[in-house]
Write a structure and sequence with these properties.
- The chain is an all-alpha fold.
- The chain has three helices and no strands.
- The radius of gyration is 17 Å and the shape is elongated.
- The two termini are 34 Å apart.
């Protein structure tokens, strides 16, 4: 993942957040730090399992 892509993602988020604030629309994310850290935790947990190369084929286990 390149720095350019990360910077573009951050810029997109900043512009989107500014848009929501400008038009007084609630953001579609937790407005408090603990909620935001929960989202970061979900992402980090996903990446940790992905890095460990673990998976459970749920649909296959259910017979689909």
């Amino acid at each position: 993942m390149g720095f350019k892509l990360i910077a573009l993602g951050l810029l997109t988020g900043l512009l989107t957040g500014a848009f929501f604030a400008l038009f007084d629309v609630p953001i579609p994310a937790p407005p408090e730090l603990p909620g935001l850290m929960g989202i970061v935790g979900i992402y980090l947990g996903y990446k940790a399992v992905e890095a460990a190369d673990l998976s459970v084929p749920v649909l296959e286990s259910l017979g689909f």
